Amino acid sequence: MKIKVISRDPAEYTRSTKGDIHKVATNLDPKLHPLEAPREFQRALNAVKLERVFAKPFVAGLDGHQDGVFSIATNPKRLSWILSGACDGELRLWDLTTKKCLHTSVLHSGFVNGVCCTPDGSTAITVGRDKCIRMLSLDRYFGRSDSNVEVEPTKILSNTFFTGVDHHRSQDIFATSGGVVELWSKHRDTPQASFSWGADTVTTVKFNPVETNIFATAADDRNIALYDCRVATPIRKVIMKMRTNAICWNPMEAFNFTAANEDSNLYTFDMRRLEQAKVVHKDHVSAVLDVDYSPTGKSFVSGAYDKSIRIFSYNGGHSNEIYHTKRMQRIFCVKWSLDAKYLLSGSDEMNIRLWKAEASKRLETLSARQRSAQRYADSLKTRFKHHPAVKRIARHRHVPKEIYRAKQEKRTMEDSKKRKAANIRKTPSKKQKSPIAFTNERTTNILEEVE
After folding, report:
1. Bridge-partner residues for 256, per DSSP?
2. DSSP for 185-214, written as a single string
3. Among 245, 310, 258, 317, residue whose Cα is nearest residue 284
4. What are the distances in angstroms from CA 316 to CA 41, 313, 359, 382?
5. What confidence tens digit (pLDDT) does each residue in 413-423 have?
6. What percentage of the chain has pLDDT greater than the value 90?
7. What is the pLDDT of residues 303-350, one digit of tens each?
8. CB neighbours of 429 closer than 8 A, spacing ≥ 6?
9. CA 227, 108, 168: angle at the middle one, nearest 5?
């Protein structure tokens, strides 16, 4: 006679610790769970509500500057180090883990218009309108120097003023912008090469982190130009309707860069096709002053004259997040940390603010159960993200009254223009020779491409 015996492994129902919950066997057959979808929808709704409740992005403020913070740079060899330059010529080295200033020195007699680090992180390079390039050694703070005596920063005098600086990804050269674009080496006091295309001031310069020999510039005559440091002639340029204030390359897509414009929009271009923008990023209501990409290349942060910081997806037309405070003034510079977890902003009221890249993310170390619950909540929000109730809560953001009113006024003006054009198309006048064509937003603000 055969006897069937039920055998179970104790590991399937025994708790690993006393504090652990009891394991319960569940049958995942959908016929046994007819209310699974409504139940998961309610969980998704609760998850997105809790996400907005716990969205507190501000982490810390770094005080110490005596004037507005005009430029920020990260150190490629130290994750927690940042450099900040102020409008009074002061440069500070900060440690974000302790929120303390490690070094302070006045290097320029005016604005610190640009600051960057060498690839090995040992030297900080700053430029200003006083026609000086200053190079500060950071070996003392790395522990590479035997002496604790402060080393005097190297000084290079030029014939023209400077508005920006950026270092090559691997080679020992850096580019400066100003009256002309110049390539320098820290071992020489004269430029290795000089580039110019037009007569106006070049306001910013940025090296491509992937195609490292290519760099982009923006000038006061509203053009964005591309150069190759291996040849003596420029590659091409595009002329916009309004001036571009800042440029940043996508670190994961070699051909794409984003430009921050005076018309309150950001434009993502493919450098092979500059006749139209790939994406137009909207939502700011005033001039965009700076932009910086995440190390992952999936999103970027922008700071504007409207006293707000916005986070955009690299291919999204509208922002995913907005950060603001009552005391924060015009945003001069923004920077993404090298671990893609934090944002830095420098503003007109002398503060550097540290923000979370994900507003509701917890900073402490999570247990295995907490990580599992977080993954489940994220999957529920992704599953029901297009449901109107979930979408409304996820997209809602409180904004300052000034921004809310300016955005309403801007939307009213845009709707009025569209309505007027539509009415003219319906009932054209006899004097009108040709019908009004439909406009493409990706080409409206671009005048021409020049090669």
Report:
1. 270
2. -TT-SS-SEEE-SSSSPEEEEEE-SSSTTE
3. 310
4. 26, 5, 18, 17
5. 999 998 988 88
6. 71
7. 999 999 999 999 999 999 999 999 999 999 999 999 999 999 999 999
8. none
9. 25
